[in-house]
Amino acid sequence: MTETSEPPQEPRRVRSAQASLGQVVLGFELIVVGLAALTIFGLGALPAWLALGGGAALCALMVFTIALMMKYRWAFILGWAVQAILVLSGFAVTMLFLIGAVFAGIWAFAMTAGAKLDSQKKEK
Predict the structure, then answer these.
(1) Quick one: average pLDDT of 10-18?
(2) From residue 103, how far is each of 21, 51, 87, 110 by CA, in Å?
């Protein structure tokens, strides 16, 4: 008889609810930022290189933040910075003040609700 040995299983990585919710919010926000950059470009509110380049840079920052949220706590601070940049983009197109404020509110809710869920999970 031969026994097959199974490779040792790695311990399951505990997924943070706060990080998961933050990633979802930033994922949806990626779509909005891409469309906002096109809107700013189309309205001529900023030069084309700034509207499209700035939108692309913010999207890249968001993807970078999404990738780091499961590993590093400082990525949450980067997420808050993304929210501030989006609100400040309202200086280019006024409606973005509202859109930025809505997403900042969703981000704040995700961060507080996620932290609460994580603390409840630790108590069990």
Answers:
(1) 76
(2) 13, 20, 9, 10
